[in-house]
Amino acid sequence: MRVPARLLPLTAATAASALLTGCFSSVGTEEAGSEGKRIRVAHMLPPRSGLSPLSDDAFKLSRWSTAETLVKLNAVGDAQPALATEWEQSGKSWTFTIRDGVTFHDGTKLTGEAVVNSLTVAATASPKPRILDGVELTAKADGNTVTVTTGTEDPLVPQRLSSPQLSILAAKAYKGKTVNPVGAGTGPFELTKVNGTSSASLDRYDGYWGGKAKAPGIDVKFVPDGTARAAALRTGEADIVEAIPVSQAAVLDQDLITEVPMPRTNTLYLNTEKGVFKDVSLRAAAREAIDAKSIVEGVYEGRADVAEGLLGPALPWAAELRSTVKRAAAGKPSGQTITIGTYSDRAELPEVAATLQQQLQKAGFKVKLDVREYANIESDALAGEFDAFILSRATVLDSGDPAAYLYSDFGSDGSFNLSQFADKTVDAALDKASETATGDARRKAVIEAEAAVLGTDAAVPMLHERVIQGDAAGVVDAAHDPRERELVTADTYVK
């Protein structure tokens, strides 16, 4: 049963609209005119690392079609040509042929050396991009070919190189302590201006190797407030709006929103290293106390799916391969105090936290909440400052393959190990999944690794989210990408 939609009070709608008034005026060098309108985009999360491709900001660069990778993925996650036209494997090495006739936005040519430069910066960064967790990678150029070598034989190299965090940028991007993507990509749109965490502008790059984009440019506004983003669609202030909150979706014109199951799981990570949840029986007690169905119906208004595991309906093979997981018996909480952290950038999460607080307190815990913007809470979460943390986590975002996500989050040396988790059995299962060739055998190994993680109750998957994207009536061919890699493409335009 769907909970009745919560209507937006007039005063809130007025205030949200006021936040956006004038913020989408064209600020690029090419104004709307006879060639069409600039596309106005309202994003949820502001940049957290100056749009460095080595961070999650890389996915903004990808969604704006300004930075590109050697490889891209098709709908089922298979590797397809992009800046590389073909590749072949020989043991631990993969040789990629670089596409001819490609120029960066600063006019310099795409070469093997430029590719090696970008990959080397990523491979030697500290911390490394998630997609390279546990991977030793070196690259060497020979004319128009690049040979990528890993420390051990890795069947997933092409999929790894599809990650936006391994985008190929011009040499100018790397002159300094940070990576600056302005004017350094190869895509159909050139990033021309970034205004901190408030806005960005892109202009069409007419020298694009794949053909001229249909829109003259993109004007981006970062709008963390979900009510304001929904108001931007309703009032016509934005053409494309990402992450419409479920509380707002029901009150919008349903013809303007698209809802797609996505590989994103809302998970409660439990701190296994210290505090209350070092005790596996109390982790099991927390897991048994959680009523995910009530969260889906009450908070998400039915626009989500109850989780049976870490991997959801966007990967249908997961449910087909999954079997019953053996778990520890639940202990009985006796008033232990726990602190749960989460962030306000995703509008539903504070409400999820409040619901969990009630459920866990009913089970016998005392629960405190710490809710901040993501940029202000991530470092504490990674440092293990909370007993538990609620995260909306993309499970195949980087490579199209969930093994990398599982390793990053649950490997002993994973770079996104919110549970502070280390388990030799889980590590062995993760290693097996990572080493198995792509196909049915790898999918089976991935599900075995998922079962190993779930058996420890280091994380409690609650629900799988759906993409709720808003496209104004005049928008043509905006991407609706479950992996959140594409949004505005060369074919997107506004009538």
Automatic annotation (TrEMBL):
PROSITE patterns: PROKAR_LIPOPROTEIN. Residues 1-18 form the signal peptide. The keyword Signal applies. Residues 80-415 form the Solute-binding protein family domain. Gene3D superfamilies: Dipeptide-binding Protein, Domain 3 (3.10.105.10), Periplasmic binding protein-like II (3.40.190.10). CDD domains: PBP2_NikA_DppA_OppA_like_3. Pfam families: SBP_bac_5 (PF00496). GO terms for cellular component: ATP-binding cassette (ABC) transporter complex; periplasmic space. It comes from Streptomyces capitiformicae. The keyword Transit peptide does not apply. GO terms for molecular function: peptide transmembrane transporter activity. Keywords: Signal. This is ABC transporter substrate-binding protein. It comes from the Bacteria. GO terms for biological process: peptide transport.
